[in-house]
Specification:
377 residues, alpha+beta, 5-stranded antiparallel β-sheet, 3-stranded antiparallel β-sheet, 12 helices, elongated
Length: 377
């Protein structure tokens, strides 16, 4: 290595007839061109080495092609800076820039590795399968942990980069040591962000919600479409989007229809006359459920749950594989049962009863009128 540095210095000395800025460009450009060619050779060699290894290492070599090339360029420029005829003040600034670039490069590689590991882990789970409860659990957990890890890497990388600047480092140390008003203001300002970050980790571990969970929140029914590091996007039934902070699902109650499984029991209420044929309705309900592809063949039931002076309340229970199918099955059962009653038992539909009672005194007077008229004649 010393011989190589001596050779480069000898070349620079031979170019002393050129302006310093031209020599600097030639030295830095030559070092960059040299490492770019070397990078291609190293990349092919690494691909050959990891070809027999796991998918993670093959993907890591492929995805870090850009960061690896940047790392070699930084190393080449760092090695060529002392040789080039650059003023000391400029060399100090250039070294500082290269140091910050190295820190950012390490953070970039760490984020890439996290993304590759998450993608490979989630390849075994399919969200589009019919029974996707296990897939939703793992995808939700890994996506939230991935975002939390990326956020943590970004914070650490930014903090280390800022610590390379002497004024900022002294200011940060003074803030941590004094814990004064500025530190208190900063902590209060960061409280929502930190609260959502902690809530995201808690949701990833306990999983009160998962991707594609059917939930009722704020009086709206929809599916969990996206879980970020700070908020949750709920896709409502009418294609609207409801955006809520992560802390909402830790602090407030909501309904999760697919917490332990995708299957759901849907209810249909009918209000009928007291003469409704309950046994015939039970048989017809079983026929309707058996003929529907939406029924999962688990639950079908019909009961009279209430009786009032005008109508009786009939509750129908049918089960389906997931929330959308349960909703469609409820509508189908409601339509077919009402249609069957209208065609075969119209007397079972709700009716208003009224009984006309004639006044007793008026009846006596009407009965006595013929006798009075005969006596008068």
């Amino acid at each position: 290595m010393p011989d190589l540095n001596a050779a480069f210095r000898d070349i620079v000395d031979r170019l002393n007839w050129l302006p310093d800025w031209v020599v600097t460009l030639l030295v830095l450009g030559g070092a960059t061109a040299l490492v770019l060619g070397l990078h291609g050779v190293l990349t092919r060699q690494l691909q050959r080495i990891v070809s027999a290894r796991g998918l993670f290492w093959r993907s890591l070599v492929q995805r870090t092609f850009g960061p690896g090339r940047l790392a070699l360029v930084i190393a080449a420029v760092s090695a060529a800076t002392p040789i080039a005829p650059i003023p000391w003040e400029w060399q100090s600034g250039l070294r500082h820039i290269l140091l910050v670039a190295t820190v950012a490069l390490v953070g970039w590689i760490a984020v890439t590795a996290i993304h590759i590991a998450t993608t490979i882990y989630l390849r075994r789970f399919k969200l589009d399968s019919e029974d996707n409860l296990l897939a939703r659990k793992h995808v939700t957990q890994m996506r939230i942990l991935q975002r939390a890890a990326v956020t943590l890497v970004a914070l650490i990388t930014t903090a280390i980069a800022l610590m390379t600047f002497e004024p900022v480092r002294q200011y940060g140390v003074s803030l941590l040591a004094s814990a004064g008003a500025a530190g208190l203001i900063l902590g209060l300002a960061m409280q929502p962000v930190l609260g959502n970050l902690v809530a995201g980790i808690q949701i990833a571990i306990t999983q009160p919600i998962r991707l594609e969970d059917a939930i009722i929140v704020e009086g709206e029914w929809g599916w969990v479409e996206e879980i970020t590091s700070t908020y949750v996007v709920v896709r409502l039934w009418d294609w609207r989007r409801l955006v809520l902070p992560l802390t909402y699902f830790i602090q407030k109650p909501f309904q999760n229809w697919t917490r332990e499984g995708a299957s759901l029991i849907g209810s249909v209420f009918l209000y009928l006359d007291h003469t409704a044929p309950i046994d015939a309705m039970r048989r017809k309900l079983k026929e309707v459920a058996a003929a529907s592809p939406l029924w999962d063949k688990q639950v079908v039931n019909l009961q009279v749950t209430d009786a009032k002076e005008a109508v009786i309340e009939v509750r129908i229970l049918v089960s389906a594989r997931n929330a959308p199918q349960a909703f469609d099955l409820r509508c189908e059962v409601r339509e077919k049962m009402i249609g069957w009653l209208r065609e075969n038992h119209p007397e079972a539909l709700p009716r208003r009863r009224a009984e006309l009672v004639r006044d007793t005194l008026s009846l006596h007077r009407q009965d006595a009128m013929p006798a009075i008229e005969a006596a008068a004649a």
